[in-house]
Amino acid sequence: MSEIKNICVYCGSSTGDDPIYAKAAEKLGVALAQAGIGLVFGGGSCGLMGVLARAALAHGGKVTGVIPGFLDETEVALRTVTELKVVSDMHTRKRLMFEKADAFIGLPGGLGTLEELTEQLTWIQLGRHAKPLVIADIGGFWRPLLSLFAHMRNAGFIRPDYEVRYMVAERIEDVLPMLRAAAQHPKKEKTAATIIGERF
């Protein structure tokens, strides 16, 4: 059994067009703080990143931001976080976020969020780590991606012996219980095919 002390959350530097995304980010930030779990995120003050981090901080949470120097000009680093790491490039950012996290959550976001999320899924698929990962499918945002994964599987590009292990939650309330259950019973992790749409 491994304890989850810090969770890395990937999410957008925009809030998106539907208020449901920002509400979910805020609710997650509060939940992490109340659970005593540290937040590791991309360090930006805008979009879902800012909403998430500010909510965690407002409720006494520990927040670590990791941002490349060049992005500080566009995403503007949130200076009020517990710990802010300004790094040289994206690769260093992603490595540091990975090292500081015991689990991962993918909230809605754009290309950067997608790239970070799929990199972790690839590492899990290749056996590089066994940290649990939840895709927060808020308002069905990630449904096209999940359909693409199924298409890849059906087309023979995701072989049964290289199945991607992840969990899907449609409600923020389900995210932490799912991660905790996966951390306590890592050998009982289910495959994506059996966990999509599962409720706790």
Protein architecture, described:
The chain has helices at 19-34, 47-58, 90-100, 111-125, 143-154, 172-184, 192-195; strands spanning 6-10, 38-41, 63-68, 83-87, 103-106, 133-136, 167-169. Helix 1 (19-34) packs parallel to helix 2. It is built from 7 helices and 7 strands. Helix content is 42%, strand content 16%. It is globular, with a radius of gyration of 16 Å. The chain has a 7-stranded parallel beta sheet with strand order 4-3-2-1-5-6-7, with helices on both faces. Strand 5 (103-106), helix 4 (111-125) and strand 6 (133-136) form a beta-alpha-beta unit. The chain has one domain (6-195): Rossmann fold. By secondary structure, it is α/β, with parallel strands linked by helices.
Brief summary of the model shown:
42% of the residues lie in helices and 16% in strands. It is an alpha/beta fold and 200 residues long.
Please outline the helices and strands:
Blueprint: E1 6-10, H1 19-34, E2 38-41, H2 47-58, E3 63-68, E4 83-87, H3 90-100, E5 103-106, H4 111-125, E6 133-136, H5 143-154, E7 167-169, H6 172-184, H7 192-195
Parallel strand pairs: 1-2, 1-5, 2-3, 3-4, 5-6, 6-7
Helix pairs in contact: 1-2
What is the CATH level 1 assignment? Answer: Alpha Beta
Number of strands: 7
- Distance between the amino and carboxyl termini: 20 Å
Overall pLDDT, averaged? 91
The number of helices is 7
| Structure class | alpha/beta
Mind telling me the C-alpha Rg? 16 Å
